[in-house]
Design goal:
With about 475 residues, the chain is mainly beta. It has helices at about 1-25, 40-45, and strands at about 60-65, 80, 85-100, 110-125, 130-140, 150-160, 165-175, 225-235, 240-255, 260-275, 280-290, 295-310, 315-330, 340-355, 355-370, 375-390, 395-405, 415, 420-435, 440-460, 460-480, 485. It has an 18-stranded antiparallel beta barrel. Strands 1-2 form a two-stranded antiparallel ribbon. Residues about 1-5, about 5-45 and about 410-420 have low confidence and may be disordered.
């Protein structure tokens, strides 16, 4: 009996010792005394789409953004530390009642266009790579004779590989739409492919100047765009790296009367991390614009200095600027019959998160392909978006975009413009969204589309110098629960 009591006493003491030792070994010896506590693994990798929907995710649940400063992609506030692989299908319906539906100012009648689509988002994670896919596509039905009935598609894909010193990114973004992509579906889920929301997976993040879309509303008929390419970053030291990449873009129309183009972009840059949050860099970029059916071609050289600041979950800032040299294959009257045009270029993007809201602003200035209207244009573009959680179920969004395009090359063919023609295009609106359970959303919004030209412009048989169009939207979207792959 005494032997059993001694054995029991020894077992209790041993168990207590190992418990205390285990607690001591579990403490992070690198954590400062009285400082931040180690983040629990369960918090970092909770259920798919988990989190307090009334506020932004805490920084300790986000993976820091590692996109290079001198690359093609805009910075982010960070991505969810999601180790699951899953896909989510869904459906959506949006109806847009719009005045001046032809976007040419010829009628004050109201028209209605409906979009019925299937949506899917997929995220596949491996130990050193990830794949993110977003797709939306379906039919559109309009009482506007210039739009009619048709179909639309939007797709984005980004594959990222991470090795010890290398990062390789493959990306592609495609759209087939009945109108200009600039402001399309603003404030609603139709603006971007996939299901969106907390279950949505990362987009390509391509900056606006690399997309072959349009910022002029005058061009007519359905059109499709595609931008794809690759980017590689090699770490020279723990603080410095080199980024190199290439993109190819195209713009096509289903109707005559517009200018179609192919764009090719090469990029090389050097990045240096000053502090944990601040990075500087220098880059060289060459862009080549070619136009189907026209002998003209444009080569554009840009050198920029860049600065970036990132605070995970709070701030993402990136600015760059420098000289730009544009060369024409054929002398242009818009540049006094010279083959070379010297100017400046710049880009800036800012994202900031508050506890219950987010704001994002971007700006670009430089030479673009011409948006299907010009053979080369100097473009200034500003976009703003903001969202705020109003109540547990309701949220509000605001979206504004402005673009100024002026010709640097002749506009040739059935798109009739003068050498000094310029466009100002604006979209501005707001929307409300309400959650219907865990898997559905209802949206109601208003957007105004405004275009002003300094002379009468004709695209095909449609001629206009100014127009304003009002759009009221209502939509309903639904998706399944996440379907886990592994």
């Amino acid at each position: 009996m005494k032997k059993r009591l001694r054995l029991l006493r020894f077992s209790i003491m041993a168990a207590a010792y190992f418990c205390v030792a285990g607690i001591g070994m579990a403490q992070d010896p690198q954590a400062p005394q009285g400082g931040d506590k180690p983040k629990p693994a369960a918090k970092s990798y909770g259920p798919i789409g988990s989190g307090d929907e009334d506020q932004n995710p805490p920084p300790d649940t986000l993976q820091p953004d590692n996109r290079p400063l001198t690359g093609f992609q805009e910075p982010t506030l960070g991505t969810q530390m999601e180790r699951h692989s899953y896909w989510v299908p869904g459906v959506s319906y949006y109806n847009y009642a719009q005045s001046n539906g032809s976007s040419q100012g010829g009628s004050s009648d109201w028209n209605s266009t409906s979009y019925l689509s299937g949506n899917v988002s997929l995220l596949e994670n491996w130990s050193r790579s990830s794949l993110a896919l977003n797709y939306s596509g379906g039919g559109d039905f309009s009482t506007d004779s210039t739009i009619g009935n048709g179909w639309f598609q939007q797709f984005s894909a980004v594959q990222t590989f991470n090795w010890q010193r290398w990062q390789l990114t493959l990306l592609d973004e495609f759209a087939y739409l009945p109108q200009a992509q600039f402001g399309f579906g603003a404030g609603t889920g139709l603006a971007n492919p996939g299901i969106g929301g907390t279950l949505g997976v990362p987009s390509t993040g391509l900056a606006g100047q690399f997309l072959s879309g349009q910022t002029i509303f005058t061009a007519i008929g359905p059109r499709y765009t595609n931008t794809g390419g690759a980017q590689a970053t090699f770490a020279l030291t723990p603080r410095s790296s080199v980024t190199i990449g290439g993109l190819a873009s195209l713009l096509r129309f289903s109707q005559a009367g517009n200018i179609e183009s192919n764009d090719y972009i090469g990029n090389i840059g050097y990045n240096y991390q000053l502090t944990r949050a601040d990075t500087i860099g220098v880059l060289y970029r060459f862009s080549s614009f070619h136009y189907l059916g026209f002998p003209q071609a444009i080569g554009d050289h840009t050198v920029q200095l860049a600065y970036g600041r990132k605070i995970t979950g709070r701030l993402a800032l990136q600015v760059s600027g420098g000289p730009e040299i544009t060369e024409f294959r054929i002398p242009q009257s818009a540049t006094n019959n010279k083959t070379q045009y010297i100017s400046g270029s710049g880009n800036a993007t800012l994202s900031y998160a508050f506890s219950r809201s987010n704001v994002s602003v971007s700006y670009l200035h430089g030479v673009t392909a011409g948006s299907g209207v010009f053979i080369g244009a100097t473009t200034d573009q500003v976009t703003f978006s903001g969202s705020r959680k109003l109540t547990r179920k309701w949220s509000g969004n605001a979206n504004v975009g402005f673009a100024h395009n002026s010709a640097i090359g002749s506009a040739i063919g059935t798109v009739q413009t003068g050498a000094n023609t310029s466009y100002d295009t604006v979209y501005a609106g707001a929307s409300l969204a309400r959650q219907l359970g865990r898997n559905a959303n209802f949206t109601l919004g208003y957007t105004a589309y405004i275009e002003n030209a300094n002379s009468t412009v004709c695209a095909g048989t449609n001629c206009a110098s100014n127009f304003t169009s009002h759009q009221i939207s209502v939509g309903l979207s639904w998706h399944t629960r996440p379907l886990v792959l592994r």
